[in-house]
Amino acid sequence: MMKILRSEVLLLVVTVSWILFDASKIYADTRNHESIIKNENPIAFPGAEGYGRFATGGRGGRIIYVTNLNDSGEGSFRQAVEVESGPRIVLFNVSGNIELESRVTIRNGNITIAGQTAPGDGITIRNQTVYVGANNVIIRFLRFRMGDVLQVEDDALWGRRQNTIIIDHCTMSWATDEATSFYDNSDFTMQWCIISESLRNSLHEKGSHGYMGIWGGKNATFHHNLLAHHDSRNPRFCGSRYSGRPDLEHVDFRNNVIYNWGGNSGYAGEGGTYNMVNNYYKAGPGTRSNRDRIFQMYPDNGRNNQPAGIHGVFYTHGNYVDGFPRVTADNWIGMHRTMLVPFDDLRSVIEFDKGQISTHSAYDAFEQVLNWAGACLVRDAVDSRVVNETREGTFTFQGSKGSTGGIIDSQDDVGGWPDLISKEPYLDTDGDGIPDWWEIKYGLDPENPDDGNNHDFHSFYTNVEVYINSIVQHIVDQKNIGAKANYIDVYDVFTGEPEIVINGDLNQTVLAGESIQSIVLSWEHAREVMVNGLPQGIDLVINNESNEAVISGTPLQSGFFEFDITTLGGIIKVSKFGSVMIENGASLIAENKETLVQRLLVDTEIADVVINFENATEVIHNGLPDGLDLIIDTESMQVFLSGTISDAGVYSVDLTTEGGSTYTELAVLFYVYTGGAEIIKHGAPSSNQEIEFGEAIEQFFFRWENAEDVEITGLPDGVVVIKDYEQRHAILRGRPLEVGIYDYVVRTYGGLTEAEFSATFTIVEPVSNSILTSGLNQMISVHPNPFDINVTVSTYGGDELRSLQLYSTDGRLLREEFARGLTHKIHTAELPTGIYFLRATTIKGDFKTIKLIKR
What is the span of the domain harbouring residue 737? Predict the structure, then answer.
């Protein structure tokens, strides 16, 4: 048995691009260090994240195959998900469009619907809505494209007032109400989905609609989704207007891509707490207004189940707004309000709980979502088009009833539903959900219907789940590259670990022009292998049917190359490593290595660069800046680089040999500055500030010149640095989390000289140590404070307490208690001495944040 500790972030790839300025490098440097959650509880499937990740679906239940595309009856989708009951895993023996004649309701929970098992192009549900009306539901790799054929006003897929649901890698579009709405659910996740092209001028009773969805819930996660070509509600946060429980409403909205909204991006949020983190906003040709908006905050109007005026509180951080660097640098410029509530009452400087999740930067999320969102095992033509339009900032189709710029009015405007090809399904003799070939390969019995629900391979998943998860494991492996996970899953692998058998030498040295000795490899307990890092000229021939591969050929590059062989689609990933050294091949060698990276002033001659080349007849170059001369002498076999660069910037002169049995490459880098490094403070507020604890600093920024970057040390926790590399700005903002004197230093690096700037933040106790915020009718206080063991929270003004949340200074939720009455005592004997923050919420939804000091 093997014990595995694994986050779903399997690989971190770091690339460096030498360009003049790169807006993708805008990021937030927080001072807090996040603790890693060790999770030993079974999750829905590898890659399941957020609050819905602990759904078990149909685990341990019976297998039901969808065998036809009929609306109803034996073997239909409706029969499996609406009629049948009990724990069940729904698999597909057919691909194609399922044309519903009436709504399908998932009314019996404990169900897993595994769309990735469809043989061929996958499944699309059309003509009617699918409603999730049950608990403990897993839905993966399906398309829900409703359309207007039956003149039905509804969402493509939706659900409310349920719990423990995860929607993964699905596609929703062409709805006549919202494309997909999920709100008032508990422990919910929608992840890696494409939600596109809701129908605007269609048949909604209110007229023009074209809305993405209403989203919310009591611990609801929406992450890594693409929202494209919707007029509005991208999303509309439902808030607590129906539940009347703003203390329970909590949404984590991160790493989503929002493209080409018509009139509005997102809005509302009448009650509750919201993380809006590292999303990517890109207005498009159909965006008529609010191109710089992240979100518009609404108060409740009092027409539902809570008093008027209730509003949400938002932690908004790291969001990228394409074309608006000021909003990217300060997200709260893009947070608009329709109320007279102070921004400090709407804004949290501490991130709320986010569950267990992996987070990309907004820029990386844009690429990963476009690469891997939706039913991407086989993307249909519609998803491929929408992804390309999002990437390029374009549109292809107009609406037929007046909508423009990529916002459509009918599915017919874009050509309707694509045809989907179905292939022959795998043979499953015993009907346990696992094909015979897989059972034989992994040592199971293809005639034993009971072994599908055994745990022969994994402590989290049954055998049939291991199989259906392996179909898309390569997607799981790729999509979270570059992300940071706040958890590690701990589980047991029992048998069937992948194994790679090597026949041949993994580490070889050959002369240029010679072939390597062939390396033959085979593997077990994995779907296939992937090889990375081989030099050009080395061929890899893989036979996935026989589980064999051959590495052979003659290298075309010279130098030293390290490569890896890694299994895919097994219980875990296993790798082997090797190397190839090619000697006496083409070479580029600088006479003085220090000249390969130069830092200099504009209009200053570079240090002459002399590079010798061997075993080649020619050298080609790319990226030569104005003012430099490059001479290639084929007789002396030397490259000479000299001259003067007049424009500041970063330049890379790339050299490649030609005409030999191998080739090689070399880059010469120049950092050109206008003078010595400088740090210039901008903005009216002083860099030396004295503020009361609980207040935010007055925002200002530093600009650096003639240096690669700046480093800022000594800041108090809670003050963050937002860097804009295009403008060379380091913006300081935030709310300090502790009283004290903080001498901070700004230093440049990477220039001809170094510059330094020093200043001080002085954080003092507020006039009232009990209450950090005020302005509402009732007062909330704590006593004693500082305290030793117990602290009592009291409210005055007639409104009773509802809930109390205790946070550490780094924003972690330590405890949540539900209160009733005007006073409530908190027992804290187990807490160490230090500073804490208490969020007290009343029945009416008013709340205060109070600093506590335990002696």
Answer: 678-764
